[in-house]
Amino acid sequence: MPRITNNFKGFMNTPENDNFLRACRGESVDRTPVWLMRQAGRYMPEYRALRSKHTILEMIHSPELSAEVTLQPIDAFDLDAAIIFADILTLLDEMGMGLTFVAGEGPQFSHPIRETSDLDRLEVRPAKEALGYTIDAIGVTLNRLQNRIPLIGFSGAPFTLACYAIQGRGSRDFYMAKQLMYQQPETWDRLMSILADAITDYLLAQVEAGVHAVQLFDSWAGCLSPGDYRERVAPYSNRIFQAIKQAYPEIPFIHFGTDTSAMLDEIKTAAGDVIGVDWRTDFGRAREVLGTTPAQGNMDPLKLLGSPETIETGVREVIRANAGRCGHIFNLGHGIHKETPPENVKYLVDLVHQVG
């Protein structure tokens, strides 16, 4: 398949609406920027119509379809940033782990990592080759965005990907991953190093394709103690951060984890120009812990299932907790729930711009 020609290299151009990027740098903005995790997805009729014809992996593997899904919420709402439509688990799939999405059960891997010898069969290829469909999707998306707003690239963090790689599926506590971490520390370190290097290569490829910012999703970091995070996880996320900043110091690096209120200072130390905060954390307290570091968040996603009054209360609580500090990007504390009415998303986005 021929490479996609990208005429709008993101990091080389300032978008017409650059409030998101200004907030990432801790600068003043004319209105609080807002984008939403999973803003492209199952709650949108346009997405469901496309999904009825294609599997998730078919859409991700098609640069044209990925770009179309990425832009669906941008065409529907006045968002301040887009995020490329992909999945954190494709990186593992391209290593030969056998990803499938099982109806009612979610993602599963047919070849999980359980012992040292399993690492030898991992196939690690350059991201531009293994994940070229997402790199090409970035080019298609940027061409269609025409520099209106920034585009965000992303990857799963080493710990979160290790959890899936070892457990083979989702879990409430990822006990197999933690068991391997405690019982086979050398295997753990080797796996985390492999993942950190692959993620670095993947994020660098996305930046070189033109994204304006990158986000590292550490969705399961909250199942760790602060000490285990600091000793066994943070060094690998920091390795990624340092590599990105050395190559492209101007690219904002967002670091997001869930259920991490007890270790926001550890998250901040590990990596990130911007720290994403989930809804379990008081946003005012988070901003005090983070100091001058910009923050992203953090309304409970399920408030979008409520009345306009509920949504307004949620928005105003977050804006009030920010207390006028620069460097705030409004977002949910996690992804949009699939039952969310699209009109509620529009109401939220417009309200943030009015009161933020």
How would you describe this protein?
- The protein has 356 residues and is of the alpha/beta class.
- It has helices spanning 19-24, 45-51, 56-61, 63-76, 90-97, 116-119, 127-130, 132-145, 158-167, 175-183, 185-209, 226-247, 264-270, 283-290, 308-322, 342-355; strands at 82-83, 99-102, 106-109, 151-156, 213-218, 253-257, 274-276, 295-299, 328-332.
- The N and C termini lie far apart (45 Å).
- Helix content is 49%, strand content 11%.
- Strand 5 (213-218), helix 12 (226-247) and strand 6 form a beta-alpha-beta unit.
- The protein has a single domain (10-355), classed as TIM Barrel (Alpha-Beta Barrel).
- The chain has 16 helices and nine strands.
- The strands form two sheets. A seven-stranded parallel β-sheet has the order 1-4-5-6-7-8-9. A two-stranded antiparallel sheet has the order 2-3.
How would the blueprint of this fold be written?
Elements: H1 19-24, H2 45-51, H3 56-61, H4 63-76, E1 82-83, H5 90-97, E2 99-102, E3 106-109, H6 116-119, H7 127-130, H8 132-145, E4 151-156, H9 158-167, H10 175-183, H11 185-209, E5 213-218, H12 226-247, E6 253-257, H13 264-270, E7 274-276, H14 283-290, E8 295-299, H15 308-322, E9 328-332, H16 342-355
Parallel strand pairs: 1-4, 4-5, 5-6, 6-7, 7-8, 8-9
Antiparallel strand pairs: 2-3
